[in-house]
Amino acid sequence: MSLLLTAPVQATERVITIAPHLAELVCVAAGCEVLVAVTAYSDFPPQIKTLPAVGDVAQLNLEAVLALRPTQVIAWDGGTPAAQIAKLKSVQLPVTALRITKLDEVADALEQLGRLLGTEARAKAAAADYRQRLASLRSRYASARRLRVLYQTETAPVYSVNGLSPISEAITLCGGINVFAALPTLAAPVTDEAVLATRPQVVIHGPAEQAAVAGYWARFAKALASPPKRVAIDPDLLTRAGPRLIEGVEQVCAALDAAR
Asked: Residue 179: CA atoms inside 13 Å, Cβ hemisphere, count?
């Protein structure tokens, strides 16, 4: 069952989302038909690219928002500035802030949106599918041989994520060890010396960074007894806390399986 349900619905709500992953969640929980506007970088599903953008995560065009007469504004708890949420509420706009910091919370957010937008059956079905896929992966990889994994963005310097990131949770679920789980912040730069000291067996990066990452590791070829296996995964599948996160987890698991 696909999480991107496409059956049309009667759009009785007028929804504005304030982050790309929120638009994806609404499309699955209630149908893209309820969306009247999104924010910058909202590009999935493809049909929402035609919707007006009323700003970005940090700054909205309040006049544009009001002109669209939304019945619901969905904000990102932890991403949308508190001052921005307060400003929306000050003009009597109904604002719901969703917070997703764990893999399981995607399904919870789908159900919350279903209750909010009157599409509970649709949202519950999508949430059940997500949970089933997640449970299947947990069962399959519970006893998998552990591999040291580096999630890498950039090369000068390298950035990685700590254990509080859903990316790190995905790595752990799939039988991996996030080599930078102890970083002091969710994402942080790390030195080349620190990277090499972790001796990663698998490096996960974005497709757009493939050449740069290959060049980075080529510099250390002589210093490595066994170079890590490099795997490109669409970063939107891992960094956007929406329904496609389960696809990212499945790809991480498949990559670690291949490396074993």
From this structure: 21
pLDDT in tens, 61-75: 999 999 999 999 999
Q: Compute the distance between CA of residue 246 and CA of residue 166 in angstroms, rounded to an integer.
A: 11
Q: At what angle do helices 245-259 and 166-173 cross, to 10 degrees?
A: 40
pTM: 0.91
Q: Edge to edge, what strands does the sheet with 229-232 contain?
A: 176-178, 147-151, 202-205, 229-232
Three-state secondary structure of 90-113: HCCCCEEEECCCCCCHHHHHHHHH
Q: In terms of residues, how long is the chain?
A: 260
Structure tokens at 117: 């937008």
Q: How far apart are CA 43 and CA 170, in angstroms?
A: 23
What's the N-to-C CA distance of the chain in angstroms? 29
The strand order across the sheet containing 15-17 reads 35-37, 15-17, 72-76, 95-98
With bands split at pLDDT 50, 70 and 90, how would you rate the model's confidence at 115? very high
- Residue with structure tokens 């310097």? 157
For residue 111, give both structure tokens.
């159900």
